[in-house]
Amino acid sequence: MTPFGIRKRLKGLMGDAAKPDVTSYELVFVLPDGSEQKVKTEARYTLAMASQFLPSPIATGCPDGQCGQCVVEVLDGTGIAAISDSERKVMDKWHKTPDPKRRLACHARVEGSGARVRVFSLFDYDSVRGT
Ligand code: FES
User: In terms of pTM, does the model score above 0.90?
Assistant: First the structure.
């Protein structure tokens, strides 16, 4: 028993969030050069987070999901959560022509296997290194 029952109190506050969800799903990214890359990612990761398993991740432009730069095309939406109100607001702001296949990689969450996603822009490590 810890002093003041701190473990029990924390567990009560955290509920199921204290248990990590380690379910993994597979999806395919179609890269700008046309090649395809299958990745395994964890449940509830966004497409941007899942792209960390690519040689270069999806290019993002902001830390708070407001810039609209990380747009991707969902070729098969199997296993991708429905668009949220906050994602729709950002899409409406930056992408005037509505296209239901276009999603924001930093908002769209992975909920299952089977998605195919076309990536338009990858992070350019060389531009950061100055090479
Ligand atoms: S990185 Fe800015 S909206 Fe996704």
Answer: no
